[in-house]
Amino acid sequence: MISWELKKLLKPTWIVIVLGLVASIWALMMYYASVSGEQRVIERFFSYWSVLGSLTFGGIILFVSTKLFSLDDEQRIKEVILSTKYGKRHLLAIRFFTIIIFTAIVFSLLTFIQVIGLMLFVENEYMAFKESYFLQLLVVFVGSQLFAVFSACLCTIFSSHTTTITFCAFLFGFTYIFRSNDGAEQLSIFLFSDLLDKGFFSYLMRADLVTNISLSSFSNWYSLLMNMTVMLMLTIQSRRHEL
Amino acid sequence: MKLKVEQVTHQYKNFTALNNINFEFTPGIYGLLGPNGAGKSTFMRILVDVLAPTSGMVNYNGRNITVLKSQYREVLGYLPQDFNGYPHFTAYQFLLYVANLKGLSKASAKQRVNELLQLVGLDDAKNKKLKGFSGGMKRRVGIAQALINDPDILILDEPTAGLDPSERIRLRGILSKMAKHKIIILSTHIVSDIESVADQVLLLRKGELIEHATPAHFLEKMYSQVWTITLTEQEALVLMDTFIVSNIHQQGASVELRIVAAQKPHPDAINVTPRLEDIYVYHFGNPHQVNNHSF
After folding, report:
1. Beta B153-157 vs B183-187: how paired, if at all?
2. Contact B101 A85 (CB under 8 A)
3. Which of B136, B120, B104 has the alpha carbon at shortest distance from B175?
4. Does the distance separating the beta carbons of A76 and B80 come in below 8 Å?
């Protein structure tokens, strides 16, 4: 059943074009960095997720994986699916599992592009693969999975891909607009600007937490946000008689 | 096998879509008749457990379908009024996907999908993507997906919409063959489809089940109450104001009217054999009479 859902996600050919484009831009960025020496290349290597990687990843999650949760409505097939043996609770669980797998696949591809960029321009590339790099990857992975699940929940609630994209892109974009990471010790979940800057998933997907340990207090916020979203989705689905 | 509807009522905010419906379905073909907004689709959605009734319940073999959940859906085949399918899937892929959701094994799904594609006449188009399909072809895919698990209960909402006459005849044949051991419920605006296959006809109006009987019984009740008469346009207009007209046929300068009336509507009127369409117009009226009194 997962393979069928994955098939639906992998249908759009433009993902390949987007990934190709990201690889080209990244290669170009690394090339210009290499002019200033290897140290500059390594610095650039660590900035991959800051804009290019995280924006691409967020876009793919929003435009591709989230669509899985509104496709039945859009194609007027929801009632057919709901009337099948596994069309309710079972399928919903399968779809969440599918987007987790899909997000992991996209994460691997984007990481592969990042590493290839380094290998092209640095001879002793192993220098870059220190502990902080793997920590960075872990944060990006966790952030992307949370964002994928969060947007999938919202798409199920709204039953509309367009509404979900608009809403999630707004939240996702805050980190790129609001910059309040100065004086990290003073960060508080109760501060509106901090919440907008770091309260949603793009902050994790940019891997900024690695350099800002004090933000670990925000994990409580993330678990609260995720629990509330999942609970809301389950309640609404139950009311709709779709569980 | 029994599907029992007990005091089912459904409300959308202030609008009552279904009001206290009671009925027991046993194997056979049931035709749902009623004008738009009568509650046919709501009734069908409740029967397939896609919609929970505001009050009342539906029992399958004595057990509430909302309790049975997937056990009930396992024996169900459903074609909703609106059906499209995934545009990037071929007909074959789509049917395999539905077979998967219905719990068929891979091998039996492949065999069943091929059988059904042949049955609905889409064998040649099985590898074409659904986005290139016409309305009628999509409808046939919809019928095939409903039959894929060989359901005990088959519910089809407007199955003949978009089908050409030969496809409609083919569908009637399919349903008639299956009817012996299955409950088949279908709604359609094409009354002749129901007339030729249904064992029982249920008339729904404004969310209420106003009458149910066999087509023969309905026709018997209307016997000697259906008339035809050929008149001038002016004379016809006068009769249209007074009587229920089930058909108007322009014949040059004159007009042939088909009238449903207990008494002879005109001295020249000739008594004819009733059709189910006359019963439909008798119960639900003819919008042509209300809105357009001109030829």
Report:
1. parallel
2. yes
3. B120
4. yes
Highest mean pLDDT pick, A30-39, A46-55, B118-127, B174-183: B118-127
B22: which DSSP letter? E
Q: Name residue, tokens 């999630």.
A: A168
With beta carbons less than 8 A apart as the criterion, state whether B46 and B8 touch: yes
CB contact under 8 A, B80 and A79: yes
Phi first, then psi: give them for residue B266, nearest 5 degrees.
-155, 145
Q: DSSP alpha helices (H): ranges in chain A?
A: 2-9, 14-34, 38-46, 54-60, 71-74, 78-82, 89-121, 131-158, 161-177, 192-198, 202-205, 218-239
Q: What angle do CA B220, B190, B52 make, to 5 degrees?
A: 100
**pLDDT above 80 for B92:** yes
The two tokens of residue A73 are 């409505």
- A33 lies within 8 A of chain B by CB: no
Nearest CA to B171 out of B212, B119, B105, B133 is that of B119
Q: Which residues of B touch A80 (CB under 8 A)?
A: 78-80, 83, 98, 142, 145-146
Can you give the pLDDT at residue B36? 87
Please name the residues in contact with B154: beta carbons below 8 A apart, sequence gap of 6 or more. B76, B77, B78, B146, B147, B175, B178, B182, B183, B184, B185
For chain A, say whether B60 makes contact (Cβ under 8 Å).
no
Please name which of B283, B291, B281 lies closest in space to residue B203, comparing C-alpha atoms.
B283
Contact A11 B88 (CB under 8 A): yes
Look at residues A194, A153, A146, A158 and name the one whose alpha carbon lies nearest to residue A174: A194
Q: Decide if B52 touches A, using CB distance below 8 A.
A: yes
What number is the ipTM of this complex?
A: 0.87
- Residues A90-129, buried b or exposed e (16+ Cβ, 10 A)? ebbeebbebbeebbeebbebbbebbbebbeebbeebeebe
Residue identified by tokens 């800057």 is: A197
Which residue in A has a C-alpha nearest to residue B149's C-alpha? A84
**Closest Cα of chain A to B94: distance in Å?**
10
Backbone angles phi, psi at B117, to 5 degrees: -60, -35
**Contact between chains at A79 and B84 (C-beta distance less than 8 A):** no
Q: pLDDT band at B125, cuts 50/70/90?
A: very high
Q: With an 8 Å Cβ cutoff, is B101 touching chain A? A: yes
The answer to whether B284 touches B34, Cβ cutoff 8 Å, is yes
Kindly report the nearest CA distance between residue A73 and chain B, in angstroms.
10
Q: Alpha-carbon distance B88 to B130, whole Å? A: 7
Selected for mutation to probe chain A from B81, B86, B129, B149 (highest A CB count within 10 Å) is B86
Judged by CB atoms closer than 8 Å, whether chains meet at B88 and A8 is answered as yes
Helical ranges in chain B per DSSP H = 40-47, 65-68, 70-73, 91-101, 106-119, 135-147, 165-178, 191-197, 215-221, 233-242, 276-284, 287-291
Other CB atoms within 10 Å distance of the CB of residue A21:
12
Helical (H) or strand (E) element with B226: strand B226-232
Handedness of CA A213, A217, A223, A224 (dihedral sign): negative
Whole-model pTM: value is: 0.88
